[in-house]
Amino acid sequence: MQMSLTNSILCLFEITDPNLIVTGISKERCSTNQRIHVVHATLSYQLLKCPHCGHKSLIKNGTHMSHLRLGTLSGGRYEMHLKRQRYQCKDCSKTCGAKTKLVNRNETFTHNIKHQVIVLARDMLTSKEIAKLCGISPSSVQRILNANIHLAYRVKHLPENLCFDEFRSCNHWMSFNCCDAVSHRRIVTLKDRLSKDIIDYFEARFSVQERAQVQSVTIDMNAEYGSFIHRLFPNAATIIDRFHIIQLAGRALDNERTQTIRTIQDKHSRIYHILKSQWHLFHLDEIKVNDSKAVYLRGINEYMTQQNAIDLALDAFPRFRSVYQTYQGILSAIHQKDANAFQSLLTNYQPTSNQMDITINTFIKNGSALLNSCRYPFSNGPIEGLNRKIKALKRNCFGFRNIDNFFIRISLIHE
């Protein structure tokens, strides 16, 4: 019966050492008046040779009490008061003690509680919450993470398709992030997004042959990335993310719409309310605009089709119509992934001194990188998803002051 109870207690804490024998369980209070669940146990086995001289002349020499921290079962603090058998050699007079795989040498935190800390850290909990659940201090949580989580020097193989992006890390710094466009696996996270540091990282850790195997790199509209991609990856095609293309064109459409609204003197007119309240209709793809069923449009307070509302605004302002048609052409080319149509739109575009002129000039400067968004299936969606996890981690932990601790937590949530 006693052996069965011992095995049950050891199984609860996932302890597999056959030399451990539980002698009892009690509840005590520490110096901070916190209640502690204590498991009393002994560790003893027959040691034949002295680890120092190798002679078979060992005798038992009392016990040594060790206070070990166990993993929590119900959110409280659990400890093991372990009596370790001590031995003395008659020949060399040196002493030694019984060892266990439950804990490392000269440590009090068992592997079980370290594992619990790492698992809870993957769930984006704060250090204080982890410490409260495990019955340890927040500084101990961070020490466990720093000792057991090591940032990799580099990945074994550089993937053929990469994604580049940045995110806000500590103290308003912008950090660089890179991932695999196909498997969504994180490749590297750097403390800043300076071109010099990005170039140094890839050139120092990957050979020319490895970097030459990269086939594509997907980026946003950041011009700095495009300036060194060919240097790092000579055979890679630069791809500008489709979302950022549509976003830039949509921003030009909104700017032109806002300028048009300011020119309207009658603030109670139907055209004014259409441009002011029904702005989302102008961002819809022409295919998705309803032109048959009349619906109640709030702001206008009338029943009409969506196409009718759009036509009223476009007929009243030809300059806004030109910007709208250009936006629809960009939207159609991106959705259909028609690089020829996109190229034709950029080539035949006629400037009319509106907000879209700046956007088209930006597209022309990016050249083939912009057209590659229609030729390749890759986007920055995977890395935006990774950045979303990082932002959630920052929000849950109320920010980080130490960037090294922040990057350790990032590596955990991306494993």
From TrEMBL:
<dbReference type="InterPro" id="IPR029261">
    <property type="entry name" value="Transposase_Znf"/>
</dbReference>
<dbReference type="InterPro" id="IPR032877">
    <property type="entry name" value="Transposase_HTH"/>
</dbReference>
<feature type="domain" description="Transposase IS204/IS1001/IS1096/IS1165 zinc-finger">
    <location>
        <begin position="49"/>
        <end position="92"/>
    </location>
</feature>
<dbReference type="InterPro" id="IPR002560">
    <property type="entry name" value="Transposase_DDE"/>
</dbReference>
<feature type="domain" description="Transposase IS204/IS1001/IS1096/IS1165 helix-turn-helix">
    <location>
        <begin position="100"/>
        <end position="146"/>
    </location>
</feature>
<dbReference type="Pfam" id="PF13542">
    <property type="entry name" value="HTH_Tnp_ISL3"/>
</dbReference>
<dbReference type="Pfam" id="PF14690">
    <property type="entry name" value="Zn_ribbon_ISL3"/>
</dbReference>
<dbReference type="InterPro" id="IPR047951">
    <property type="entry name" value="Transpos_ISL3"/>
</dbReference>
<dbReference type="Pfam" id="PF01610">
    <property type="entry name" value="DDE_Tnp_ISL3"/>
</dbReference>
<protein>
    <submittedName>
        <fullName>Transposase</fullName>
    </submittedName>
</protein>
<feature type="domain" description="Transposase IS204/IS1001/IS1096/IS1165 DDE">
    <location>
        <begin position="162"/>
        <end position="410"/>
    </location>
</feature>
